């Protein structure tokens, strides 16, 4: 039987994408980006989301791809709008048409809130392609929001920088621990928490590095259980709050399950030397079959 700390470290390692998966993602996103460059004459494009921030976990879900169609137009009121009178719905449909023209044998790509979704069954890789316009002199991008019919501000590159800085402050332990929490959240189908919400709240969890992953996991769950009751602004200070659509009752429910997880990890820490089987059981209850107490 592995020690509790050893088993937790091996569990976290098991959430990392394999080199083969990374190679396949690289191959596929290169194809998609090259196709869109030709069909849309884009200004630039880049990977965004959890994959670009190195906080994605197995099994890999959608990969965000930003496609910058051009510069936004500054109006007389100093606000910005996309070129011409392009609506969010039209911008999304423009991307969908380009994707469908390249892969006609596939089902039509799906329009989503901010993106167009396309999946490749052979590789298992799926993308959310986000049309965007760069706002001159503001270090920001406009992206569509279908349910309001508005273009909203964001900058995923700022998110990526803040994620890296928070991970450095935590002695490079934040991202591995966050992956464990994301796996826990994915296993709790009743959880109202989105992956990005968890990630943004985690940025302030570690003013200094935790002693080890077991201590860090307790700190992180406890920190999240307190932060979730408050407001979660866009870390780039550009777009709407990350939790803007989360209701008070959902926050209360999330606080309770996060606090319960923190308590289970605290008890596992206390039992890690005196009663390893019980400690292993607590962590397996949290993380499911991905967590093992011994090798194959």
Structural features, described:
The protein has helices at residues 4-14, 19-40, 49-52, 88-102, 156-169, 174-187, 195-202, 213-227, 248-271, 276-287; strands at residues 44-48, 63-71, 73-74, 80-81, 110-111, 116-120, 125-135, 140-145, 150-154. With 296 residues, the chain is α+β, with helices and mostly antiparallel strands. The strands form two sheets. Strands 1, 2, 5, 6, 7, 8 and 9 form a seven-stranded mixed sheet that branches. Strands 3-4 form a two-stranded antiparallel ribbon. Strand 3 (73-74) and strand 4 (80-81) form a beta hairpin. The termini are close together. The relative contact order is 0.13.
How is the secondary structure organized here?
Blueprint: H1 4-14, H2 19-40, E1 44-48, H3 49-52, E2 63-71, E3 73-74, E4 80-81, H4 88-102, E5 110-111, E6 116-120, E7 125-135, E8 140-145, E9 150-154, H5 156-169, H6 174-187, H7 195-202, H8 213-227, H9 248-271, H10 276-287
Parallel strand pairs: 2-7
Antiparallel strand pairs: 1-2, 3-4, 5-6, 6-7, 7-8, 8-9
Helix pairs in contact: 2-4, 6-7, 6-8, 8-9, 9-10
């Amino acid at each position: 039987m592995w020690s509790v700390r050893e088993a937790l470290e091996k569990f976290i390692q098991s959430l990392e994408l394999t080199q083969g998966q990374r190679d396949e993602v690289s191959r596929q996103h290169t194809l998609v980006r090259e196709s869109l460059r030709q069909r849309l004459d884009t200004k630039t494009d880049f990977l965004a989301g959890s994959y670009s921030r190195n906080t994605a976990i197995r099994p890999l879900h959608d990969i965000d791809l930003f496609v910058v169609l051009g510069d936004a137009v500054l109006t007389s009121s100093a606000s910005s709008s996309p070129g011409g009178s392009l609506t969010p719905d039209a911008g999304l449909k423009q991307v969908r048409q380009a994707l469908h023209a390249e892969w006609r044998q596939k089902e039509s790509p799906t329009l989503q809130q901010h993106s167009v979704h396309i999946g490749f069954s052979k590789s298992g890789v799926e993308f959310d392609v986000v049309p965007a316009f760069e706002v001159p002199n503001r270090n920001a991008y406009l992206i569509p929001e279908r349910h309001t019919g508005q273009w909203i501000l964001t900058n995923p590159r700022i998110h990526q920088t803040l994620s890296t800085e928070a991970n450095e402050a935590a002695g490079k332990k934040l991202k591995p621990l966050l992956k464990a929490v994301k796996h826990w959240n994915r296993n709790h189908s009743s959880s109202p928490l989105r992956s990005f919400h968890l990630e943004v709240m985690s940025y302030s969890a570690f003013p200094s590095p935790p002693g080890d992953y077991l201590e860090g996991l307790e700190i992180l769950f406890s920190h999240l259980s307190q932060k979730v009751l408050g407001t979660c602004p866009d870390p780039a200070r550009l777009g709407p709050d990350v939790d803007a659509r989360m209701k008070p009752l959902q926050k209360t429910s999330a606080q309770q399950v996060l606090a319960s997880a923190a308590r289970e990890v605290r008890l596992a820490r206390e039992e890690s030397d005196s009663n390893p089987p019980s400690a292993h059981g607590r962590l397996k209850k949290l993380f499911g079959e991905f967590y093992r107490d011994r090798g194959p």
